[in-house]
Design a protein that fits this description.
The chain is of the alpha/beta class. The chain is built from 11 helices and 8 strands. An 8-stranded parallel beta barrel has the order 1-2-3-4-5-6-7-8, surrounded by 5 helices. Strand 2, helix 2 and strand 3 form a beta-alpha-beta unit. Bound molecules: 1,3-dihydroxyacetonephosphate.
Length: 250
């Protein structure tokens, strides 16, 4: 009922040459991915190129960030409408690298979430705890706070056209994956938290896991009942690895 979605967050990696090779590899192998929806989120500078390379394929396009504003004097920023011009379907908001390195607040992330939807894009809202927050036993409280910033401002129904990515910060780029049980526990908490406000929104919501997911550990993570896909960093930069994760989704 919830179609798994495997999305590659390329972060600030690659070159024009390397992304052409990567996309060509993805196009070669995508027909062997059965049930999962596959999406790639290149750096903004390469959106136009990737958009034209994947035209006519089943690969969806996403961006890594957008402005909370619709247009105007915001040097360096990119609006949701601009992302639409390149046929983006998804946009990541609130990635931990933007929250923790660039200092984005829960409120700003909520505004970006809304700006994405206002432009007709589907936001992928990233949530997740730092290592010290897990050790302090406040993982659930942190995830709830990050989700509530959106639903308190705009209502729970906005989650209908969105995806949540649970990405424990301590598992990102560290090779330290959450165990399937650890991940499932938080995914179930997130779904339950939303269900307490709206059961049908919670039932339909796709919740991805992100954090050192790779071809070797994907199947076990994706087999968990509340894990509906993956948001993949490092392993999305190699076509074979990314496609293997897609095939692991069933
Ligand atoms: P890694 O897969 O490299 O750990 O990155 C996960 C991530 O941050 C995806 O958004």
């Amino acid at each position: 009922m919830r179609q798994p979605i495997i999305a590659g967050n390329w972060k600030m990696n690659g070159s024009l040459e390397s992304i052409r090779t990567l996309v060509s590899g993805l196009k070669d192998g995508i027909r062997d991915v059965n049930s999962a929806e596959m999406a790639v989120c290149p750096p903004a500078a390469y959106l136009a190129e990737v958009s034209s390379l994947i035209t006519g394929t089943t690969i969806a396009l996403g961006a890594q960030d957008l402005s909370n504003a619709a247009s105007g004097a915001y040097t360096g920023e990119i609006s949701g409408d601009m992302l639409n011009d390149f046929n983006c379907k998804y946009v990541i908001v609130g990635h931990s690298e933007r929250r923790n390195i660039r200092g984005e607040s829960d409120e700003l992330v909520a505004e970006k979430f809304k700006a994405a939807q206002d432009a007709g894009l589907t936001p992928i809202l990233c949530v997740g705890e730092l290592l010290e927050e897990r050790e302090d036993g406040i993982t659930e409280a942190v995830c709830a706070r990050q989700i509530d910033a959106v639903t308190d401002a705009y209502g729970v129904s906005v989650l209908e056209n969105s995806i949540i990515a649970y990405e424990p910060v301590w598992a990102i780029g560290t090779g330290k994956t959450a165990t399937p049980e650890q991940a499932q526990d938080v995914h179930a908490f997130i779904r339950g938290h939303i269900a307490s406000q709206d059961q049908s929104v919670a039932d339909g919501l796709r919740i991805q896991y992100g954090g050192s997911m790779n071809a070797g550990n994907a199947a076990e993570l994706l087999a968990q009942p509340d894990i509906d896909g993956g948001l993949i960093g490092g392993a999305s930069l190699k076509a074979d690895d990314f496609l293997a994760i897609g095939r692991a989704a069933g």
